[in-house]
Amino acid sequence: MTIKFCNQCGHHVEYQIPESDNQLRAVCQKCFYVQYENPLIVNACIIEHKGRILLGKRTIEPRKNCWNVPAGFMENGESTQAGAVREVKEEVLADVKNITLFGVYNIIQRSQVHVYFRAELDSPNYGAGAETSEAQLFLPEDIPWDNMAFPVSVTALKRYVEEMKTGNFTIEEKDILIDYEMLRQFDR
62: cis peptide before it, omega within 30°? Predict the structure, then answer.
């Protein structure tokens, strides 16, 4: 419950269940405008090139100095796939091709939906973008699992590595409940 003021008239809001609704909402006490709080969408892309996976080392919090697949919050006015491609360009300065949906991961406790795509490098050109200190292609056995940024990325990436062995990629939709004990290892 984070909304304090109406984005229509600026008056104070109170959380209540509006008529014909079943959820607490931020309701303006002057103009009665109802403001909705919705989950954030994160777009991510697992990029393969000649049996290696491209990761970037983060220069920003959270999880500064940890590795991750290119990922970030979706912007208004873009599709999930366009957002993933944008994140790839911003974080590892790469162009990708053969982009397909790989998985949708619902992180309910964080009110986030992570949409993962898989793709191939369009050319062997890549580098560190504004939010990364380095970009590197890793063989599956060399992925720095103990220094990965986010548990959801580990989940998706481990599945990808497993499916690489057969070349039979599936699309998965999964709810991920945060294991706060496991999460402590990611909070350095």
Answer: yes
- Cβ neighbours for 15, distance < 8 A, ≥ 6 positions apart: 1, 24, 25, 26, 27
Choose between 109 and 166: higher pLDDT. 166
Residues 6+ apart with CB under 8 A from 11: 5, 28, 29, 30, 31
| End-to-end CA, the chain | 27
Q: Do 17 and 101 belong to one domain?
A: no
What is the CATH number for 178? 3.90.79.10
182 Ramachandran zone, left/alpha/beta (phi>0; psi -120 to 50): alpha
Is 146:75 a contact under the CB 8 Å cutoff? no
Beta strand pairing call for 40-49 and 52-58: antiparallel
With beta carbons less than 8 A apart as the criterion, state whether 54 and 137 touch.
Answer: yes
Are both 20 and 71 inside the same structural domain?
no
**pLDDT value of position 178:** 74
Query: What is the average pLDDT across 61-80?
Result: 96
| The pLDDT value given to residue 188 | 41
pLDDT at 186: 46
3-state secondary structure at position 157: helix
Neighbours of 83 (CB within 10 A): 23
What's the whole-number mean pLDDT along residues 113-123? Answer: 97
Residue 46 has pLDDT above 90, yes or no: yes
